[in-house]
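Side project, low priority. Logging it here so it doesn't get lost.
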Amino acid sequence: AIVILVATLPVAMPLVVTTALAVGSYELSQEKAIVQRLSAIEEMAGMDILCSDKTGTLTKNELVLDGDLIWEVNGSTAGEILKVSCLAAKLEGGQDAIDKAVKEALASFPESQGGGLAQLEEYEVKKFVPFNPVDKRTEATVVAPGGKVYRMSKGAPGVMVDLCCQGSLREEAEDKIIENAQRGLRSLGVAIAEGDEHSGGEYNLIGMISLLDPPRDDTAQTIVDAQEKGVEVKMITGDQRAIAIETASRLNMGTNIIGSEIWGPDGEALIRAQGSFGQFIEQVNGFASVFPEHKFRIVEELQKIGHIVGMTGDGVNDAPALKRANVGIAVAGATDAAKSASDIVLNAPGLSTIITAINRSRKIFNRLNGYVLYRMASSVLILGFFFLSIVALKFDFPTWVLILLSLVNDFTAMATSKDSCRPAEEPLKWNMVHTTIISVVIGLVGVLENVLLLFLSEPRYVDWWSGWKLPDLSSCQVVAVMYLNIAMTVQLNIFSTRNKSFYFITSEKWGGAPPPSLTLCVPVFGSILIAVLIAALWPDNISLGGGANMVGCGWGPVGVVALWAIVWFHVRDAIKVLTYKILETGSDMFYANLTGSTAEDRRKKVKDMIKKARKRLGMKELKKQGLKANIESHEIPHHELSGAAAATAAAARMSVDEQPAKWKEAMGKIRALEQEMKRLSSRVDALEGGGSKKRGGVFRRGGG
């Protein structure tokens, strides 16, 4: 009994699982992701929301001049504006971020349109006044190729407007400043004047340039890949809301970004309208102007409603949220505090490494799932067979043969950690109801196969071997027959449990797993070969323990058993596929009440409908309210709004003041939809309950 118990219990499961996770950790390290907690690999496979920092993760964390947003006035061209900006900058040694961005923009601008740094060699800079907090602009006195002297300047937009703009040009410039400010862009005015500071004329504005921290080259595609993998990326940043919206719009990740107003008294009312803060977070694309405690709360609230949350960060202030998240990810260049609080440390910049890690973790999860199915099915097979063989058929099976069988099985099971598999397209979570049902079905079919073979092999029950033109076997030879069949059943189950479809289907289109790896095939077929040799040739004078002895049965019975095992392997595989089909499609009579998946699917569809309606009706209004607060808090230094600009701003405020009525109307529609959702959910519950009662009646009639 103790031997059967040891053989049945999956004592090697912790070792195999740890081995699979360790191999996965090594694979992730090859992709520049260092795993600090092995269980984080499993949790990353089920991650469905990734809260990402903006600066340095989604963006490059550097200022870049956007050539498409250069504003040209007074007949100037983009190339001329960039050239004047460069001449009014410090080009050599000790450059600040703005001067560096301007120089790189001119270098990359097409030469046919006035770009290129070579042209700057024709100009001689006589005097350069760097930026200072008083003047808020730079100025250079430059001698042009023809000998003419110019003063060139760039600086804060308000300062430059006051310096050289009058009338309608001033109004246009102020409107442009407001437009760029609303988009979160940093504007610089560029101006030029003839002569030096003693004999020169007045400055003339020739244009404005816009600077921003641009998204990384791979970020947009990375976000698309994440969404295709069922992972929603939400931006969490301490920057201003307008900057976050501009970045989100460039990445096509949704511009429903919530600002600091959500943390105030008005924000609590909005949260209550959604039901909970977690549900509110689900509806938005990100948060701006957040503090460390806000990041922590965002992660915590999402976890409360069942999400597996990943969090990226790089600073000391990110450590609490990284620690709280299911998967804390310290990005490249993170501080030691962030690294110590995280589960995974990235050594490559950007988010693309995270997508690679998600794919790897889902492969590892599939390997573990296949192993757990295989091991549970093996336990059901061994326990069920030995119980029935001893109790029903009075068969004495040597305990040492069972130990040998278990050792070989655990050795080959470790090879599953190097099996080939594909990453799932959706987050993966353990479904122990499904896993138990599938493994029990596979195990019970194996029990039927082996008990039936034992019944046929024993001469005292059936004269079966004569039908194969083979002599009857002794009880010791029947032991060899059963050892071989059990060994082949268990080993072939590895190929069945790794694939939801038929074992021979390897097409991704048909939902099959890729062909098994050589690392898996070699030990499996090696174990089968060893079992064949033992069953055919085991001498009668060797016994390694108590109970009946085992004697080689010869090559004839071995061939019959091999054929029997292969045929039944296909039967088990077909029943497995049918079981998966029943579990995934569901049956209201036989399965829905067992796991609740059918009702869950129906509720999910209703919730998705409500989610889309909220986004359409409510979040647009919330976005406008947040934008209002951001515009009002934005200050433009060194100048006052002109009459036309003031009128425009006043009109904008009037339109925003009309929002409460629209907001109330939108919230009314949302509440109506929520009531409809509750009604539909109640109806689903009633249908489920009604179905249960009807099924009880059916079974009672059958029993009566």
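Brief comment: The longest helix spans residues 659-703.
Revisit when time allows.
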